[in-house]
Amino acid sequence: MDAALLRRPSAVIPVAMSVAALATVIGYAAIFGTARQADEGTAAHVWQLLMAGQVPVIAFFAIKWLPTEPRQALPVLALQIGAALAAMFPVWWFQW
Fold it and tell me: Structure pTM?
């Protein structure tokens, strides 16, 4: 993986947003438990905003770098998608 391309904000921001979303879910589960709530709380809305907010950043990265640097951009895209899936996993696992 090319470290120079990984230092671009459009490469790092989606990963950071996924990590923040994962931390939100884990923090909420650690404090309040994993029981289903009758209504979505602030943590659910923060998670949704973080996950939806990274989609345009990933699209920008793909549009900008895939045509010019495909070999370096594909691993970064895989990292971004993997981070997003890691943030989605606890939500799926606990059926929130």
Answer: 0.90
